[in-house]
Write a structure and sequence with these properties.
By secondary structure, the chain is α+β, with helices and mostly antiparallel strands. It has one domain: Nucleoside Triphosphate Pyrophosphohydrolase (Alpha-Beta Complex). It is built from six helices and nine strands, in the order ββββββααββαβααα. Strands 1, 2, 3, 4, 5, 6, 7, 8 and 9 form a nine-stranded mixed sheet that branches. A hairpin with a 2-residue loop joins strand 1 and strand 2.
């Protein structure tokens, strides 16, 4: 089932992930997975704070030759979450149980996961270990923190509003009391998605 919405900023589409696996997307598109979970009836998304620009972004990247967009998104999520999210054996499950939205710039697949409160702490530990590992070549880590943000706070962040980080998360990541600005390309895609549908991660 396909759903399309057209705005001044361009067309955005939403489909079951399996339905578009054969689509030949441009290699210039950025593919990502955004894991999400529910706690006390509130939806939260896992995103990251980039190391270079201190901006909120998803954990994704360009599609390599020979990859489809989901293979790329799984690989990028594993790399950019410093192995916190390893879905390389879950390709078919994700394909059959997730929703993907896409526009001219981004292909974003939303994956519902079980709530696990220590994933951001796991990222911090893995990040520090990767920096200290003297047995490997120097690595460039694209993100300095992994964060979670409620759907309503994410909508406010997309409106350039100042959004305070929850106290528990702020203690984990340390240096931020408010969510940084969101990366422009991601923001534009999410704005179109939030305007077009009641939910980004279902077909409603």
């Amino acid at each position: 089932m396909q759903q399309d919405r057209k705005f001044e900023g361009g067309l955005i589409s939403k489909k079951l992930t399996r339905e578009i696996l054969g689509t030949k997307f441009s290699k210039s598109k950025r593919s990502s997975i955004i894991p999400f979970f529910y706690k006390n009836g509130i939806k939260y998304y896992f995103l990251a704070i980039s190391a270079e620009y201190d901006q909120v972004n998803d954990m994704g990247g360009r599609i390599d030759p020979g990859e489809d967009f989901l293979e790329s998104a799984i690989r990028e999520l594993n790399e950019e979450s410093v192995c916190v999210f390893d879905y390389k054996d879950n390709y078919n499950y994700i394909a059959d149980n997730s929703i993907t939205i896409y526009d001219d710039n981004n292909i974003i697949t939303f994956v519902n996961i079980s709530y696990k409160s220590d994933l951001c702490e796991d990222f911090e530990k893995n990040y520090k270990l990767a920096l200290k590992d003297v047995n490997t070549d120097p690595v460039y880590l694209e993100n300095r923190h992994m964060i979670y943000i409620s759907e309503e706070d994410l909508k406010d962040l997309c409106k350039n509003e100042k959004v305070k980080i929850p106290k528990k998360l702020s203690k984990i990541i340390g240096e931020f009391k408010y969510y940084p600005n969101i990366y422009l390309d991601l923001k534009n895609t999410l704005i179109k998605g939030f305007r077009g549908w009641e939910s980004l991660d279902t077909l409603h």
